Amino acid sequence: MFKKILIANRGEIALRVICACKEMGIKTVAVYSTADRHALHARFADEAICIGPPRPGESYLNVPAVVSAAEITNVDAIHPGYGFLSENANFAEVCESSRIKFIGPKPEVMRLMGEKERAREAAKSVGLPVLPGSDGILAGESEAMAVAARIGYPVMIKASAGGGGRGMRMVRSQEEMPGLFSAAQTEAANAFGSGDLYMEKLVERPRHIEFQVLGDEHGNVIHLGERECSVQRRHQKLIEESPAMPITAAYRKKMGAVIVAAMTKVGYTNAGTIEFLMDPSGELYFIEMNTRLQVEHPVTEMVTGVDMVKAQIRIANGEKLEDILPGQVAQNTVAARGHAIECRINAENSETFTPSAGKVTGLNLPGGIGVRVDSAVYAEGVIPPYYDSLIAKLITHGNDRAEAIQRMQRALDMFIVQGVDTSIPLHQKILADEDFRAGRLSTAFMDRFTPVKKRG
Amino acid sequence: MFKKILIANRGEIALRVICACKEMGIKTVAVYSTADRHALHARFADEAICIGPPRPGESYLNVPAVVSAAEITNVDAIHPGYGFLSENANFAEVCESSRIKFIGPKPEVMRLMGEKERAREAAKSVGLPVLPGSDGILAGESEAMAVAARIGYPVMIKASAGGGGRGMRMVRSQEEMPGLFSAAQTEAANAFGSGDLYMEKLVERPRHIEFQVLGDEHGNVIHLGERECSVQRRHQKLIEESPAMPITAAYRKKMGAVIVAAMTKVGYTNAGTIEFLMDPSGELYFIEMNTRLQVEHPVTEMVTGVDMVKAQIRIANGEKLEDILPGQVAQNTVAARGHAIECRINAENSETFTPSAGKVTGLNLPGGIGVRVDSAVYAEGVIPPYYDSLIAKLITHGNDRAEAIQRMQRALDMFIVQGVDTSIPLHQKILADEDFRAGRLSTAFMDRFTPVKKRG
Amino acid sequence: MDFESIRKLIDTLIEKHIDEFELEEEGRRIRIRRGGPPAAAPAPAPATMAAAAGAPAPLAAPPTPTGEEDLLTVSSPIVGTYYESPSPGSPEFVKIGDTVEVGQVLCIIEAMKLMNEIEAETQGEVVRKLVTNGQPVEFGQPLLLLRPRK
Amino acid sequence: MDFESIRKLIDTLIEKHIDEFELEEEGRRIRIRRGGPPAAAPAPAPATMAAAAGAPAPLAAPPTPTGEEDLLTVSSPIVGTYYESPSPGSPEFVKIGDTVEVGQVLCIIEAMKLMNEIEAETQGEVVRKLVTNGQPVEFGQPLLLLRPRK
Fold first, then answer.
1. Full-prediction pTM beyond 0.90?
2. Interface contact flag, C19 D25, Cβ < 8 Å
């Protein structure tokens, strides 16, 4: 087993990994920026190395600084957490060439599954359902018309080189196509130097469903069930749960088998998440894969009892899934119990969503039965303005969804943060919402809670 | 269901009951002494009533004050927690006559099973194993010799009216009997006005094992497995766990059936705990019954997934066990998963054991996977000197005992309390102890950790 | 202000346990804060019922000095229901403006069906009643204000 | 107020544990706040490695004034391993007592197999070296002290 692991991250996830290492008897090295001098991850690691100034590019995203810290502390492995360098294949390669084990998939698999367009092709080739659409680049407007006629309106046309919504258009009917196609083409050409467009069917008001997988380095893959993460604001997840209400046991078994087969073909190792859209008829379509630990992994841990971070470390150490999860590889998955929900508590105003950095002057963390708090916040601690606004993950587990919700409500009521604004009042509103309680969810769910924007 | 419940307690257990009520949609009334004006149980209840000055006799033990508070707030039921009025049958009767449901067993059963001598006879009569000994009072020295010869040395002779160790002698051999018998008789006569003595077999270095039961008001009883609480100092439990290492599945099943049958005969209702000594050969002997919720109930909750306080409330509401724990009454017990350990974190010096009241100036509660904290402490909050020194219960759950221990160690390392002394360093020492880790436990275990007393 | 004055000021502040001090002459502004850390506790006091008097009141409801002039507060020594007259319809024990003698009954607190008479511990004039007939009261809750006889 | 008075004032503030002090003569304004931070943080600073300089040091290792007389601290702009000579066995870049010019190499920090030369940003005399050859250093860690040429 590794003797010492460096955690290339900060905040609650750095602490999460430190916890797993401590429980496994592995020494830890924290890295921190000058803004995080008094942060708990630096406090609780066995060693802590300052790697740069507050700006992420100069510290947590600074590959030479992180790798140097690993070298001077003689660690065997690096855990990247989520965000920052966790999906950076180059970083994984640098670790490899420095003979430091990167706790995650192989760099080539990260590249394949982590890059949107290639991942879609790869997913299709290994049997995952993808959204109906064009086979690659559209030759022109007439092909666009033909493909749209085949898959049915509404459709999305997207810039192949694109991102950030530029070169992207929703087309609702045949009549709209000519104008919107050329507009997208022009915009894409101006923005990216390439007017190449492709097309996908548009799913309106989809649910966001994702499956958690683990693969060992001996060709074995298992899935840990799914999560529903439809409660999002601007693609930022706010609430996640497991299991997902619309997934029946039979469908989970069927999709699980497809996913395990697909990931086995891909040669996927370590933890990963496959994200799907679910259309109103209940069909799942691959959208992307996250080749790392997910923020919302605790809901899966709560229902399966599997410590995902320990599993990651043991996989990276070369252990087999059948030793990590005895007797469960053959059945593709693990047993689950009850229902878990996670609320991401952000330091931001719950109505305007503006971030709120500063000193936490008063704090009461909820506890008691069925409540888990993953956080690096403490009374008199400071939330620096340079990083993600996530300050705590509040997770509750109950025998069923209703109990998990009741427990979350009482935990939110007992979660007091003074000194900075938090999203707790927003979460309280969502948890009390009838649609949420009934499980009538979609990625459009949060629209009702979002302030109406004034348009110039 | 009850609409409003008064919690006749303070500290973490009052908060524990408030959590259960909040999750069930039941309003809560806290009572508090003037020393607890800023305590969290008063903060988080829907209503809070000051019932008296700090001294327990004038507030939390003051039956008229508690019942008056219940009357002026129109509650349907009172939850007594543990300690204070929880085993006071008179209080339960007063509640009954005031038409307030007392959440616990019936007063007559509390009296029967709660009073040491009667409980031993009752236990024997319903088939629970009790320590071999005399049938009641010893006629004289010669009977003492005869009984001791039958049950085997060493034995204890005890004053029938006794308490506090007076009139009590350990007799190791036949030769010692005459002298010690007459000494005990004289001491008992002087102390209690009665020289009546009885005899019990002495179990040296016993383990403390207890079984948790739940009985509904329709004659059904179930057990929730056992706990081991051998790590004690002066009969104060410090660490509890479930399951108990020396109890095999077969033995649990056998004893469980005996216990369920016995409690059914007794007509036991609501939550209760039957405490046993285990001798080195693995036999269990009844010592006493606690007719209330136990401090250490969370370890049972963690392995069984049963919310004991909710179960108590639903039982008091007249619900049947088969509705509260569907499908589990027939098999006498519920399914368990993994292993749980609880450390009682006391505000006391970890070496001298002197209590340490005062203001908590800094606090970091551990969290993360498999960690539960039941506590009413907060940064800048005050630990008053008038009450029990328990400030937090730290509970960890793991797939097995080893993981629960590792998790407890990392949680203790991350549990920071500034401003008052705590027993955390003592718990760290115990958790690192080889005998503890190997499960070589007995009620004498703590002797090694207790300061050597200087005798005048 | 010279250095010596500042030093003397600081010494005074320390001696008197003043943690903060501000002054802003002419327009005048003064601010002094004594003792205790300013840090906010996460748990504000329960706001559900009126705050009881600061010091735990012993059982015979001794009056506590109030902030207002030199009035004394009579607080409830027990939890229960407040009655201002011996039985429904009968006249109240005391009215505002009455002068009460030591030992005179001021009101009744009913607790567990028992009527507990609350007696005056000082001579004085009833200035204000703070609770209404039939209202529940908690331990230490102020019941009425007396102006003591000088 | 001259330098000596200020110095004396500062000494007094330190000695008396005054955390804040304001003064605004003429119109008059005074403000004093005593005593430690309003509450102790549960997490003391990590004690594993020497504390880096307070302000984040920009990349070219600019010297920061130290408390001692008027010395300047040269801090490490990166994480890595400190070497005082270009290669094992060769003479050190600078010795104590040397006077260095702007741009002169003071030492090397090896990071990811790259040797990063750390150059002087001010003229001055090398007064002390704070790390030993081959020692790992973190970002912002003080490397040596210079007495600037006046």
1. no
2. no
